[in-house]
Structures are given as structure tokens and as C-alpha cells.
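Exercise 3.2. Students should predict the tertiary structure of the chain below and write it as C-alpha cells, then compare their answer with the key that follows.

Predict this chain's 3D structure.
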Amino acid sequence: MRTSKQLILFIIFTPFLFISLALFAQTGDTTGTLQPAKSIATERKWDIEKYRGVTKTFTLNTDEGTWMNLDVSPDGKDIVFDLLGDLYVMPITGGAAVLLSGGPAWEIQPRFSPNGKYISYTSDKAGADNIWIMNRDGSGKRQVTKETFRLLNNATWMPNSEYLIARKHFTATRSLGAGEMWMYSIYGGEGVQLTKRKNDQQDAGEPNVSPDGKYLYYSEDMSPGPSFEYSKDPNGMIYAIRQLDLVTGKVINLIAQPGGAVRPQISPDGKMMAYIKRVRLKSVLMLQNLQTAEEWPIYEELSHDQQETWAIFGVYPNYAWMPDGKSLVFYAKGKIKKIDLSSLFTNNIPFHVTSSQTIQEALNFPQEVFKNEFTVKMIRQLCTSADGKFVVFNAAGFLYKKDLPDGVPERISKGLDFEFEPQISSDGKSVIYSTWSDEFKGAIKRTEISSGNTITLTDEKGFYYSPTYSTKGDKIVYRKGSGNMVLGLAYGKTPGIYTINANGGGKTLISDNGIKPQFNADDTRIYFQSNVGNKKAFKSIGLNGTNEKTHYTSTYANSFAPSPDGKWMAFTELFNVYITPMVTIGN
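Answer key:
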């Protein structure tokens, strides 16, 4: 279910205006209690199988594929594989493939059940990736798992053909996420958790079960964590193959070595394991004797595996042993191949797919690369004049003045630099603000509203933020930054909070840390935001840079705003706005 965005809160403080504006979805409740707005999504379920908009149909005619997962039937007669989100079957000798399941839904990773009656697969037909099964001939399709958020893929069968083990996807602060192995009955149920993710950013997946049902094998990112990083060194160790004893629950690293180890596949007699590792620039198909740990490469021309990046659906496409354990069938570089393990002779199993495909025309909105005039959709950093007659705000990098209530916005200057963070003088005659230019760097400027005349108040290039008038209007406080890798680091020396005369001149350093400075109501101290440990803090300091005090701290607050008269404090915390009496005594 898609939920509405329930609350947007803005706080604007001005000398005579203290506004708390709450915009939220209500259902006729005038008491201010927030209620979820009704959503079309709750009344009309999205159907992936239905085409919408303009479609076109074409015939797919190919003997090659990309990233094809495959499996061999227990009797060794058939190969099932996926191609462009559809499932096909063909004789083990190759030939014309027959469509088992097609349409708009994305369906991949087919696996024959050990008894040969069913095929499991991953499908988003119900709106999210889940595990489905069908009869061997493609009939009787039914959904096994019913997840709507924790998506499932890479199912593998238990030997009794009544249970499946699949990878469940978990996310936290990043979309990448991590996997856990869960077991599900084909007859229904919520599933049983078999492994626990070590964190939310290092993945695990590609489960495979031993023929006797005693062990679960899977690959897991074992590189130093806990944060996922792209483009790691695959010639070190990223993934390892782990073994879970399904009786005792004990987990061991079965193959953990340079080059990694992914996509384990146990032989029919349970004595050998095929897997994939990286050797220099090549992805190599390996064999290991599970009793002696002897191992050797058998094929070196695989498609490139995905160890360096993110591989929610597996680091390499699924492949399979032949039932007699004498050969392997696998995907590589567009083809389906079979390798004899005694001679290492490899041949292509030819396939041919002819099918009718319907695609929807992509949603497209024509965009002009450039036009002289456009409608601004967002304004920022609005401030109100002391008499409440006009506002000044930032829109698309310039400052505009608008008379209230329905004046026409007009630029306050003719400058070419970016203009931001305005504040209007108490007499309403001028505006101070920060500017930025890649050529001239930053400055604090003042523009006379009536004439547009502009002067620069700062005496050197730099990174300037949050200029604010004193209550009397005779001084200005601002923050000087140190620069960054985007804007550059030159002219970023001696950062901190400074005061200058309202007409410019020499500056006075008040504090070497803190952001969003402003004068208190009687101009005797400077308020600013900083940190105390892991918490955000609202502090003040004397004009001579001494007697620093901490007034408020919060773990989740991201903005503090004292009222102009110094009696109230407003702050935002976890998408809510709060007001509390302002207390400045003590430490």
C-alpha cells in the first residue's frame, strides 16, 4: 500500500510575525489530529499483467541470451531457462525452446523439483518478487511466498520436493540491503528463518542444498564491513561459500580464499561442489572434492561475474549438474554449454527462441533544453520585512522581492552570481545575503531595495553563509566555511563565526565552530548551532568569544529557531515542529 505524505511543516520567524504553518492530509477532523489521506492505491490494486498506454508487438527470434539462469530435469531429458523475464524449456540436446511462462511479469531462476513434477521460479506477477511454482508442463501456476516488501529470489529445493529455500532481501538506510536464507513449504505458511544477516549492507544468497538434505550452502560477502563498497578487489576475497548444518545450526566457511567463491552447486552424489571464482580478469568454473578439499579449474571463459558490484539476484546465473554427475550445464557469453568433467570437452547446446513480445511505450514528457522564461516550482529561504509588507526569497539562484499579498516578484539586484540566504534590514531598505561564483568565490553583499545598488561587505574571497543583522541593525554576524571537494578548498582558511560592521570593514572572530549564527534579542550574545557528542546543540557565546553556553541538545533535531523577542524556541525533530519556552539561564 502506498501511503500519503502526511505532514509538511514550515516555521517562519520575523520581528512581528511568528507563523507555524502545518499542511497535512485530514479526513474531516478539525481538531488537528493527523489522519492518513485516502489513496487511490488503497482502492485500486496495480495489476502487473495488464498493459497500459501505447503498446507494440514484435517477434523475438534469437539463439543467444543474456545472463540466463538454467536447470536440468532430474531425468536428464530437459533444460529449463529464463530469457528476458520469460521461462522456456527444451530437450537436453537443444533445439526449439517452448514457452512455459511469459507476459509482462518478470520471471526468472527456474528450478526443477527433485521429483521432477514442479518448476519453481521467481516472479513479480503479484506485485513483488516472490517464489512461485508450476507443473513441469507450465500449468498450475501458484504463488508460494506472499511477501510485499522483503523480496524473495534464488529458490532451491529440499530433497523431498515439499520445501524450498530462498533468499529474502532486507534493506535499511541504503537500497542495497542484505540477504537471509528462509525455508518455505509449497503448501503455504510464513516460512522459517535459517540464517541471519550480519548487517544490512553485506549480501548473502545463491542457496543450494545437499542431496541428503543435511547441509545448506550459500555465498556471502565476507569482505571487511559493515558498509558495502563498490569496485572492491575481486582478486582478494569478497565472497565466500558457507555451509550451514541444518541439524545442528553450525555455520562454517567452506571456501574462503583469494578470488572469492560464489554460486555453489552440489553434485548429485554429494561428493563434489562446483563453484565460480575470479582468477585475475577471468571468472572461472571450479570443482572441489568436498571430502579432501582438492580443487581445480574446469572452464575459464565464463561471462564476467558480479563480485565487485551488487548482485541481489546472484553473483552468477544458476547452472546445473547432469543427473549422472559426469558433466555440468551452464551459461556463458550468450550460450548454453555442457562440459564433460573427465575430458573437459565443452560444446554448445544450441537453442532457438521464437516468441511474440509486447512492450509498452516508455512514458515520456517532452523537455526543452533551454527557454528564456520558465515557471519556478520552488522557493527557498523566504524572509519577511519587519512591517510585514513584503518578502524576499531565493528562486533558481536569484533573490526576488514580492509585495504582500499579491505583488509581482521582481529581482532585487542585477548580479550574475548565485544569491542565497537573504535577510531584510529592520528599516526594510536593504537586504544582505550570501553569493557564490565559481570564478570569484563567495561573498556577503548588501543591496538597496529601492535602487538595486549593491556593495560587497566582506573583504576577501571565501565561503560565506547565514548573514544576519543584529537587532539594532548596526552589525552583521555570519559563518565562514572551509570549502569542500566540490567548491574547492582555496580561500577556506580560518573558518568560523564572525561579526562585522553593517557597512563592512574589519571582521571579528567569535568562534571557530558552529553554523547558523544570529544575535540574541538584546545583541549581547551570538546564538549558533553545534554539536555535543552525538547530539545537535543550540548554543550561545559572548561577543568577545567567551562564556560559551549550551541551551538545548537533541538527538534528532535538525533546526533551532528562537523567536525575535527571545521568549520562545521552535525546533524541528523527526519531521515534526515543536515550540517550547526559551530558557537561557545556566549552562
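Discussion points: The chain has one helix and 48 strands. Residues 1-42 have pLDDT under 50 and may be disordered.
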